[in-house]
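Re-run requested by the PI after the first attempt was lost when the workstation crashed. Everything re-entered from the original request form. Ligand of interest: coenzyme A.
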Amino acid sequence: MAGHASIEYDGAVSQLEIAAVDDEAAAKAWHLVDDATRSGDVPADPLSEVLPRVVQPRQTGERNELWLGTVDDKPVAIAELVLPLLDNEANATGEIRVLEAHRRRGYGSQLLAHVTARAKAEGRRRLFGQVVEPLDGDEVPAGVAFAKAHGARPVLFEIRRVLELRSLDEHRLSELAARARERADGYSLVHWADRAPDDIVDDLAVLKGRMSVDAPHEDMEWEAEKYDAGRVRALEATVAAQRRRVVATAARHDATGQLVGYTDIGVNVDRPRVAYQWDTIVLAEHRGHRLGLLMKVANIELLRRTIQGVEIVNTWNAAINEHMIAVNEDMGFRPAERERQWELDV
Ligand SMILES: CC(C)(COP(=O)(O)OP(=O)(O)OC[C@H]1O[C@@H](n2cnc3c(N)ncnc32)[C@H](O)[C@@H]1OP(=O)(O)O)[C@@H](O)C(=O)NCCC(=O)NCCS
């Protein structure tokens, strides 16, 4: 791939050596392969995000195992296995990437066999993996052919949408926010960057737990994630250690003081061009007040005021998540790519 020619080798086909990534040198090699197999609007995580996944213990409720596949000591393939520790103890998620010049030699399959065995050894019964597909056209992407060849089945269908900040229709956004405010009487917005205020962290933990079940999962068996204030703080610490910044906007119900919804966007300061919409949720009993739209418009404004250099915001929604998609389309998010979640029995 352009710009990464230094790690495209002409080598004879030989055995893939698979080793755990547990130091900085291996993390760098892992990152180079990740970077070379991605492009455009979903770039690889910068090294600053990869290193803390392997060299620092995380307290965020999951464990990451990174694996590096080498041929003649040269990195050609990578895998990541994520093991939830507090919930979803029968589940694991995985990702495999092989340098383009080294595909169709069985390396992807060897890494898949390896992470499947690791997941099984950890008592997991299901392995989930995401594969990107173009929005239209008949071409079958390598990842889809690979998933099918290994007997995986599609369980969740998502669409990535993109908001271009440079061509944002600010007039439209203010109009949308003004109309939304008329329906949101009795609620106020709360904003923060990086660390949630102490007085809302317990409510935020409840909302994070709800997020893992309220967003549609179609046929993907995913349990409610268990959050408490400690886990929220641990996550914030990890995000900060990864040189990522977060802007968040929440809605508070004035009569009770309860936080009833929130939305957050993450950005890595080493690669700020692309920001990521993380969660957006409004508790079921407080829906219908346009809080989703109100929070999201305010949070985009907060993002623009707080973090420089962001050009696009990516968001992923289940294709069946009509309400969230309607809000996103209203704001100017446009479809860019399809993505399927595949499940493999372990
Ligand atoms: C998907 C990917 C990991 C496959 O790696 P790989 O080393 O080429 O995979 P393998 O050589 O083990 O392929 C195993 C089988 O998958 C199928 N397959 C893989 N790529 C294919 C392609 N481009 N077209 C058709 N079938 C394909 C074939 O059945 C292949 O067996 P065969 O070569 O004997 O016909 C690699 O293409 C890649 O990195 N893609 C981008 C990232 C991605 O989509 N990852 C998967 C999701 S996590």
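Saved to the shared folder this time. The longest helix spans residues 291-306.
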